[in-house]
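Troubleshooting entry. The earlier prediction with adenosine monophosphate gave an output that would not parse, so I re-checked the input for stray whitespace and re-submitted. Clean input:
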Amino acid sequence: MSATSPAHRHAALCKEIAAHDYRYYVLDDPSISDFAYDALLRELREIEADHPVLVSEHSPSQRVSGKPREGLRKVERAVKMYSLDNAYATADIDAFVARCTESLEGEEVLFTVEPKLDGASLEVVYEGGHLALATTRGDGAVGEDVTTNVRTIRSLPLTIAHEGKLTLRGEVVLYKRDLAKLNELRAREGLEPFANPRNAAAGSLRMLDAREVAKRPLRVLVYQLVEGSSMHQSHAESIAWLRSIGLPTHGLEVCVPAAGIAAELERLDGLRTSYPYETDGAVVKVNDYAQQSRLGFTSKYPRWAMAYKFAAERARTRVLDIVVQVGRTGALTPVAVLDPVPLGGTTVSRASLHNADQIAELDVRVGDTVFVEKAGEIIPQVVGVEANEGPSRGEPFAMPTVCPACGGPVSARARDEERPDLGVEAALRCTNRTCSAKVKGAVLHWSRRFAMDVSHLGESLVDQLVDAGLVADVADLYDLTYEALVKLDRMGDKSARNLVEAIAASKARPFSRVLTGLGIPQIGQVAANQMAERVRSIEALFASSAEELRATLASIHGFGDKMVEAAVAFVFDPETRSLLERLRDRSVGTPEPESDRVEGPLSGQRVCVTGTLTKKREAVHDAIRAAGGVVHDGVKKDTTILIAGEKVGQAKLDQAKKYGVRVVGEADLDAMLAG
Ligand code: AMP
Ligand code: ZN
């Protein structure tokens, strides 16, 4: 192999890209521009295109590859993945330390104290220097193979400088800032935000399509070496070594004698808000491996480790009642009504119980004393029940068999229509079309800022309008009169006038907003915009047959079968049809302008311009359009090029990196415009 052979260059590029991934994702300190990074990746892909023999699954080009899988393969592991015993008070930690010292017959014991990362557990195996397997915790003994998904996580190297087999445990986390961005994006697409990084991480990890996983900003932090540790005597030593060979670790473990634990816990508690990721406590571990193995395990926990939950994030209170809420899609969500208790800066009086499975697992009953935590520091959740035994305990909670809002029938949806073996979702849904809770949810969704943007129309007013029988669907909003509104409770002359005006003003919103506002299953805001580009008005929708609509939608970039079928079924549902007719008769929605798109050197490109350029921004936009390109105001999922002028904001560059958008300068744009 000569120094300039393609194989040689390929190997050098793999190394260089891995080093940049490490700097960017682990050290948070990139040393080259995104543009230069993309150029390396492009060069690598070009070499691989010319020399397919060089492609291996360890190449950085293969982080995302393949088709969605059918399901996740189960993998039995050699060393069971245990949970951790929880301490809610320092006295529990003292007792843990006493047990350890006693079992070790007075030997000197050192403990490590480190943050407990709040994400999804993961086991990773490296063999022969390559990432070979990644599995979820599953039931501990058997996990699920998520290797393809984990390969997309750039903070985890595909190749390491250690040949022996290594089995590692780590946590898949999302940085708080990444979750905020992800949720913003989801909100714009009309999707439910993730309640916390843990749910986002766990859900992402188990997705069947690695290309989707690649869009989630996941990271891995390794916290334990399970196999391949023979050259190290202790936990702290192993972690430091893993870090030295380029594996991502939190880097915060400290080693102290028993007397030093309390101070360390306090110190970590003080630091936790400064970490980029969520932590929900600290883990105290016996540091020495020989001592760990003498202590051993119970059936569930290692005897040499204990998790400590920070107090500020946890409150103890009583469950006064369990009520069930019904949302826009009809999903029934049980909620615990709590004796109000201060928690992390606010007073908490309600906490989500998610679904029947969760309630059964916790065995929460009315009257119980429970522990409540703030997940992702936002939404409180019931995490545990204080041992409440005895005859005075309430009955186990049962989900209602009818909808609590309308008395209609409820049922659980299949997880996947084509896979009856996957069973049904844990969530029950009300199947009554005219359910008042669903109507309220639909009207509220319609009025949201990202949809039809009807100001003055908030939750309590929507409740009032639906309960008074004035509104049974969104078209009814456009028949509301000042006279009818002013008769409502707590409705003044001015408010009634404002609302009528706001509703009338919303008629002028573009048709894409109408599509967003309808809340079509599977079709979020971005998809609604794309759909409105092709089908520009209600009239146009009516003019096409189901076959035509199916073909049109299927040709839209990013529209999969599920989305197309959901949209066609929705549009051709007789009830939707009559709703659309009534909206059309009330002149709701402005047809999208015929896009007089020209063909040119930028045809098919979606371009965002940012930073200071030598020409006026508007002039640049016009030039892009004249060359056949589409202008994007911000960097979106389907943006193809970001033109970066001077003083570019890091946020835009981060977005571009995230979506794999090509970043070029003004000179490059001029060259492209010139063809
Ligand atoms: P639990 O799920 O509450 O039983 O806690 C056990 C889980 O905590 C483990 O499976 C890990 O995924 C997670 N964990 C987070 N950070 C750490 C850490 N520093 N050391 C050990 N486990 C951790
Ligand atoms: Zn209902």
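This one parsed fine. The first strand starts at residue 74 and ends at 76.
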